[in-house]
Amino acid sequence: MLTLVFTKRSRRNTTPVRGTERVGPLFVRDLDEQALRRIAPFRAPQTVLARRSAVLCGLMSCVMAACGADVAMEEPVGNTGGGGWAFSSDAPSGEVQPSNPDTATVSDSEGAGELDVQSFADINNIVDIQVFADATSPAAEDAGVDCGAQFSGCLIDGKCEALGAINPASPCEVCEPSKSADQWSPRPNCCQSDADCKKASVCDAPTCDLVSATCKPGKKLGCCTADFECSDNNLCTIDTCSPTTGECKITPKTCSSASACQDGVCDGVTGQCGQQLKAGWCFIGGACVSSGKAQPGTQCGSCSPATDATNWSDKAGTPCDDGNVCSFGDACDGKGQCVGSPTKDCCKTDLDCASLASACVTATCNQTAHVCIKTTKANCCESGACCEPATNKLKPSGTLCGGSVIASQYQCSGQQIQRRSVYPGCTGLDAKTCSQDAKFSYKGPWSGVKTCASNTTCTQTASGVMPTCKPKEPTGTCKGACGGPAADGTCHCGASCTTLGNCCKDYMSTCGCTGGGCCDVAKKFLYPKGKACGSKVQYQCSGKTIQKRTMNAVCSGTSSVCPVGTYGSWANVQTCGSGTTCTVNSSKTAASCKATGGSCVGICGKQSPSGCWCDDKCSQYGDCCGDFSKTCACGANPLSSCNGKCGGKGAGGCWCDANCVILKDCCDDKPKCCG
After folding, report:
1. At 240, which helix (H) or strand (E)?
2. Residue 633's pLDDT is what?
3. What is the DSSP letter of 368?
């Protein structure tokens, strides 16, 4: 028996909506050549395609012609209520009435002479033709597959796949018979990673929803599209947004200087440029005067910025000359007067100064200044630890002048280690000073401390450090021995020999390191174990508290490579105050307290001028405006929303009808917008 099923457009699909895209392919099962020849050529609309080319050539009329049918389809039968089609054949007639107003089923069996199709008022509404026989086709039988008489999915690699089924091997492929009945078809707007989602603008940051395998719109955190988004509320800066990078640029306002001693500055309250006097300058009478410069015509006036930067100041203590030869220390008294102190022992002749003379001091009168001038005789002394009283002479430099030992000195005398004590000594310049300076100190006699063994050498590093008895110079080589001892055992070539001091002479040229974070490249030595060689800081938010931790790496002492360190414990850095929230950048290298004030009224899906956000990502980043959940529960992402679209197709290609739950293509905010 042969059955043809004609399906017209349903009431839901009277307009081009998803139903027309989901019409299944034409399936023909178990039709032998004799059965096909009983069907008249069908003048079907050109939009009705036969998708199984192995049985039908593309259109029903094409199949019948290709198969050599010897009958013809006639015009609609006039006695059918909604119009119909009659098929004439060289076989007896028979007729089956349709049971579905949208589907007409015509069956033909042995003895039928005429086939009628009923209940089609408008043949242009036919969207599918299905032809079925009473047995599975030979091709499907050979493959061992039976998809059922009314199956309208895909037969892929010998397996029956339902309409809309997703390829288990690739979530971005689906069974779409309207595109291919035997191959997987690409799934629209599908993704497997963020890299599959295209950016529409510089601030666009779409992400891949791995649950639905679809791209979801998003905006790059901190990205700007207009200058006002970059405002730092500082009148002394010029704030702009780069349209190509989405980055804010803050440029200080430039103010010119009016003079050499003034700087142009911006007033943070008014934003206007003004002048600020430079440090160390006065601005008197419209002219720049450097600090300390004397006032012309007087000794006691000068520029003193600390006192008065716009007038001459009379600062007490400024040196001057009162004109009195017997005064000294002449200085301004702060009242504009130059005052000096009487000079002690002011004189006219040398006799007036005789009382000031002594064994080591001569006193003479300066006839110009009228003061006694005392002159100490060279190398003459009258008392002190470094004075020879009998001769009034200074003791020579290096003479012992008392005191305890200040240091010990060492030297090698052959194989013997010797030591001597160092004491304070006379300088030869001052009778009362005992100096601990090495060049004036007194050195005691050398005495033996230790004698080095015959197989060692007395080695001295500094005079104040006791020499050591080091093994005699090694004779071994590091050639072919890197990492272990030399062949003759007299020295070593491992990394630790640099700290133990037993390296062979050619260690650095043969086995020393030449690079790396733990290598002293200049000396070709490995840095010792524990030396710091790198660090890294990470930040995180713990509620409203900013925390950071540090990773410190240290050298192992055996390798030139700086190893990867471990992070320490998190430490609190700052707790964000009221109206702000803790925010961390994507690389975790910085964190800050971001304002959360502002309102979402009228700007759902965007950023508030106050800095907070009203989009579907603000909850994730913790920067939502205070009224976000109340104002933007529906429509936080205008590019994919059911706001005002309930029962139909939402924004961005998603759906807001009852079927979207089954088909898994609902807009994200459907539960909030439509229930």
Report:
1. strand 237-241
2. 79
3. T
Residue that the structure tokens 């450090």 belong to: 465
Beta strand pairing call for 434-435 and 425-426: antiparallel
Q: Could you tell me the sign of the dihedral formed by the alpha carbons of 451, 457, 463, 464, in that order? A: negative
* Single-letter amino acid, residue 528: P
**3-class SS letters over 439-507:** CCCEECCCEEEEECCCCEEEECCCCCCCCEEEECCCCCCCCCCCCCECCCCCCECCCCHHHHCCECCCH
- The continuous run of DSSP H or E covering 417 comes out as strand 416-423
* Nearest-angstrom CA–CA distance, 669 and 354: 111
List the structure tokens of 472.
């005699």
Q: Are the CB atoms for 339 and 317 separated by under 8 Å? A: no
Q: Other C-beta atoms within 10 Å of 498: how many?
A: 22
How many CA within 13 A on the CB side of residue 596? 20
Segment 139-150 mean pLDDT: 58
One-letter amino acid for residue 423 of the chain: Y
Q: How many residues does the chain have?
A: 675
Q: Strands 361-366 and 287-290, how do they pair?
A: unpaired
pTM for the structure as a whole: 0.25
The band of 335, judged by pLDDT with boundaries at 50, 70 and 90, is confident
Report residue 405 as tokens. Answer: 């030992």
In whole angstroms, what is the distance from residue 105 CA to residue 2 CA?
10
Start-to-end CA span in the chain (Å): 50
Half-sphere exposure of 663 (CA within 13 A, CB side): 18
CB proximity list for 244: less than 8 A, separation 6 or greater: 202
Distance in angstroms (rounded) separating the CA atoms of residues 669 and 650 = 10
